[in-house]
Amino acid sequence: MRTAAALAALLAATAAASTSSGAENPLPKPSRPTLLPASLQPLKLKGARFAPRERVRVTVESLRGSATRQVRASANGSFVVSFSGVNPCDGLSVRAAGERGSRASLQLASALCGIP
User: DSSP string of 87-108?
Assistant: First the structure.
């Protein structure tokens, strides 16, 4: 009987602690920023989960050179950026770096385009 009472008290204390801590921080910590291709011709990249309204520098590198664009993330931390004249069949390395520390990267293999 004492064990059941102690277990009930422990469960009640745990429930109270989880309820009070949830009230202090109702939003979960956001996931890491992501960077995904939205299209290949022209190359469009979609960023998500960056800091709201963060200025982001996106750099695309290939064997033929590199290109950089600056964009501002929306209020929900997303953006879309285009790179004309970049051939994804060359194989690409993409980095996105936000001014507040958000970072994401992406590798696009030339195998996406098939073998001619």
Answer: -GGG-EEEEEEETTS-EEEEEE
Contact 58, 69 (CB under 8 A): yes
Predicted TM-score (pTM) of the model is 0.70
Burial 44-76 (b: 16+ CB within 10 A, else e): ebebbbbbeebebebebbbeeeebeeebebeee
Mean pLDDT by runs of 10 across the 116 residues of the chain is 37 37 52 93 95 97 93 98 89 95 92 64
Measure Cα distances from 59 to 1, 9, 12, 41 in Å.
66, 56, 53, 17
Q: Which CATH architecture has domain 34-113?
A: Sandwich (2.60)
